[in-house]
What we know:
This protein is mostly helical and 116 residues long. Helices cover 37% and strands 0% of the residues. It has two helices and no strands.
Amino acid sequence: MTMVTPSRLAGSLFLAAVLAAAPLAAKADWHGGGDWHGGGGGWHGGGDRDRGGGSFLGGTLLGLGLGAVVGGALAPRYAAPPPVYYAPPPPVYYAPPPPVYYAPPPPVYYAPPPGY
Length: 116
């Protein structure tokens, strides 16, 4: 089990507070500027309703990135395993090549030169 240090606890509490405050800050202007209930646009105001999927994609990537950062920060730290030492391989002894026996060359008989 890993030990929780005060700095790590403070960092985790700060991160939890920021993540808990984000939805509250987003909700603060929900009914304010007429974006959703009449006024200058949105669903009931006749404005631009189809803004594409860029904000959805950006939010998804930002959420995945933030989750990776938080998960990496909160993951327990493990020490590296000790290095592994292997015994050196045994020396290689090659057997000498087998002796090769050649048959003696056949005798060469020269024919006498033809007579002129």
